[in-house]
Amino acid sequence: MLERGKDERGVIEMVDTESLVPPGHLLRQVDGAVDFERLYEIVEPLYSEDEGRRSIDPVVLFKLVLLQHLDGNASLRGTLRRAQTDIAYRWFLRYTLSEELPHFSTVSYNFRHRFTEETIEAVFRWILDEAGSAGALSPAAVFIDGTHIKASANLKKKIKQEVPVAAKRYQEELLAEVNADREAHGKKPFNDDDDDPPKCTGQKRDNTSKKKLARRKKAAKGQKTVMVSTTDPECGLFHKGEHKRCFAYEAHTACDKNGYVLEAVVTPGNVHDSVAFDDVYDKLTQAFPEVETVVADAAYKTPHICKKVFDDGRVLSTAYKRPMTMKGGHPWWAYVYDEYYDCVICPEYQPLAYRTTNRDGYREYVSDPKICAQCPTRHLCTKSKNCVKTVLRHIWKDYEELADDARYTPEYKELYTRRKETIERVFADAKEKHAMRYTFYRGLAQVSNWVRLKFAAMNLKKLATWKARKRFPQLLPLFRLYFIRLYFAACLDLLQTGRFSTG
User: Exposed, middle or buried: residue 46 (CB in 10 Å: 0-12, 13-18, 19+)?
Assistant: First the structure.
């Protein structure tokens, strides 16, 4: 018999939000994972005790932003719209069902003007400290990589600009070692005050294009041409492989083996991973001096990074990086460096003598043109008209070889395979579950705060679920063992009663 449903939408009931939120709800786990009263101590210097109107609870403001990142809402407006009707949201914010929530503009204004970068950093560190106190962190091995975030900028609104080339942070250290190496070989050291670009020696190498040479000449003058967005001038033009060109930021991130984000530095999208490594590494080791191993991909395998990590008493575990050699020529390993005689032996067992050490830190070893002119495999070695082969070797090449040696050890090989379970998983979760694929914010400072709060929310979620599992262990393995025992007991009973035949 058909029965019509009742319309009881106007019925008044006496309920409490505590009973309406399920016991295993994520927000219950998050609320019990940390003490949010700590936020009052962090933001207390930003408020006046005697002046101004009564403020909105700062814990509510931070909880609203954390809710946005926890549920992967692209905008704060969407989070507030959901909070109007979501009972779990109101329970987490400690609001009644009829209480009015803060307006979007109020929340946005506080995070743009009141809560500074230092405040966001304090919140990020506070959650990490809570995870460390609970024993959830494992910073002995850290995994470093970067991921791009599409900026809120139109690709069509751009201009070309000549900008100065940023000086390398290790330039003074490199120049000192270059001059020491030149003096050891009887060469005149470079003048530190000389602004003129160094003169090119020899002919263009066979693997260097005209476009690359023109770019190097412009770099020697201290200038480079870049595309700048007129909408957001602080982002950078990103183009890699088959990806479409777009303006983006890049979040250079370090995490531990449990997936907790330990450090994050945001740069424009056109900054290479190896350039931003120093900022990430210095902040990371200052906060976690117990770091022993740094795991990174081949983009970080540079002489400077290898030297920096190994000089600190740590180990760099990285991947194989294919050397850039002439296509169809001799393999790179056919040219052997002889440390005793300080020369390079070519595949035809002829020595390439030392010529000079350039400003970039590379020793140049050149062949004898008279010998090369009669060499039967010269076409596999060089296409130079002068019959000269040049091999470059960096003065910090020994540190790169240390990284290669670590790559073959079982311990560090196993650590590198865990990248897909750690840092790559962090980026995948951040983009697929927490809406970090693109940003609506503009400016490096705003995007940095946005990324830091997002990683703080991810760490908080991971800590909450970890504590919940620790508090209520999984009973599935016990049930599985119980049913296995029942199965074997039934089989034994059948064998003993004779109703089961083995043939």
Answer: middle
In angstroms, the Cα distances linking 469 to 26, 48, 143, 263, 472 are 12, 41, 25, 26, 5
Contact 296, 313 (CB under 8 A): no
Q: Give yes or no: residues 99 and 148 share one domain.
A: no
Contact 355, 345 (CB under 8 A): no
| Rounded average pLDDT over 4-12 | 78
Q: How many domains does the chain have?
A: 2
Q: Bigger pLDDT: 108 or 199? A: 108
Kind and range of the H or E run holding 169:
none
Residue pair 429/332 in contact (Cβ under 8 Å)? The answer is no
Q: Find where tokens 């393999």 sit.
A: 331
Q: How many CB atoms sit inside 10 A of residue 392's CB?
A: 14
> Residue type at 277?
F
Q: For residues 299, 304, 307 and 313, what is the CA-based torsion angle, rounded to 10 degrees?
A: -70
Quick one: tokens of 460? 């908080």
Q: Do 48 and 186 sit in the same domain of this protein?
A: no
Bridge partners of residue 324, in order along the sequence: none
* The pair of three-digit structure tokens given for residue 361, joined into one six-digit string: 């830190």
User: Are 91 and 228 in a shared domain?
Assistant: no
Is residue 458 situated within a structural domain? no
CA 335 – CA 391 distance, rounded (Å):
8
Q: Whole-angstrom Cα distance, residue 320 to residue 299? A: 10
* Cα three-residue angle 267-272-277, rounded to 5 degrees: 75
E strand intervals along 151-269: 158-164, 223-229, 236-238, 246-255, 261-268
The answer to the question of residue 354 being in a domain is no
- Check whether residue 88 and residue 190 sit in a common domain: no
* Residue partners of 350: CB distance under 8 A and separation at least 6: 367, 368, 371, 372, 375
- Smallest CA-to-CA distance from 149 within 248, 68, 238 is with 248
Q: How far is CA 205 from CA 12, 221, 330, 391, 432, in A?
A: 84, 21, 15, 10, 45
- Taking each helix axis as running N to C, give the angle between helix 397-407 and helix 303-311, from 0 to 180 degrees, rounded to the nearest 10: 70
- How much is the pLDDT for 168? 80
* Distance from the Cα of residue 289 to its chain's centroid: 19
What are the tens digits of pLDDT across the range 407-450?
899 999 999 999 999 999 999 999 999 999 999 999 999 999 99
Provide the whole-model pTM.
Answer: 0.85
Residues 100 and 202 reside in one and the same domain: no
CB 260 within 8 A of CB 462: yes
How far is residue 86 from each of residues 12, 72, 106, measured CA to CA in Å? Answer: 18, 15, 20
Q: Which residues constitute the domain of residue 147?
A: 141-311+408-443
User: What's the full length of the chain, in residues?
Assistant: 503
Same domain, 286 and 171: yes
